[in-house]
Design a protein that fits this description.
Largest sheet: 7 strands, mixed
CATH topology of the largest domain: Immunoglobulin-like
Radius of gyration: 32 Å
Strand content: 35-45%
Shape: elongated
Helix content: 10-25%
Number of domains: 2
Number of helices: 1
Length: 194
């Protein structure tokens, strides 16, 4: 009599179940990994930095005076075809009517914090506050009159000239201008940008 071994059906069934479970675990792990990546919140797209050539720079007139200082709203309007962003303080120096720089560059306004501002295409406007100090209030200032301001937008090297007559110092050292960071919207009360 010949003995043959019968296959263990229970063992075969267990192996099949384990193989199916392993395949299922692999599929679940792959879909969980791809789902985790897609479940991350999407970051809002940041508009490209505003280039000087896409900004129209102007000021609100007249300035508001108080105790030896005059405050000006200097406006930066996007004349480009795409939204753009500004973040930080502009560079600002005063020039004489004939061109040379007068005194030191503007310092930052105390207590002001820069933040990202996005300007809509073709007309979105932001502003900075300029405080100019009457040279007579600065003991070491050799008084002069500036006819033009040279403003460099944050993150740019190119600048733009803004015709604005203010009191200035001929000599370096005394700070006669303070500038704030870029703020959203037009800074002139009662004025609405188009």
């Amino acid at each position: 009599m010949k003995l043959t071994r019968r296959p263990n059906r229970r063992l075969a069934a267990a192996v099949a179940v384990l193989s199916s479970a392993a395949a299922l675990i692999s599929v679940v792990a792959l879909s969980t990994a791809s789902g985790a990546a897609s479940a991350q919140p999407a970051r809002p797209a940041t508009a490209a930095r505003c280039l000087t050539r896409h900004l129209d720079v102007w000021y609100g007139e007249p300035g508001n005076g108080a105790a030896g200082s005059t405050y000006w709203d200097i406006e930066l309007s996007n004349v480009g075809t795409h939204a753009c962003s500004l973040d930080g303080f502009p560079g600002l120096v005063a020039l004489s009517v004939s061109g040379p720089q007068l005194g030191s560059a503007a310092a930052h306004l105390a207590g002001s914090t820069p933040h990202l501002v996005t300007l809509a295409a073709a007309g979105g406007t932001a502003h900075v506050i300029l405080r100019s100090i009457d040279p007579g209030f600065l003991a070491t200032c050799h008084a002069a009159t500036a006819g033009v301001l040279r403003l460099t937008p944050p993150g740019q090297h190119a600048s733009v000239l803004v015709p604005l007559q203010i009191g200035a110092c001929k000599n370096n050292g005394p700070i006669f201008m303070y500038v704030g960071p870029v703020e959203g919207g037009v800074g002139i009360p009662g004025y609405t940008a188009i």
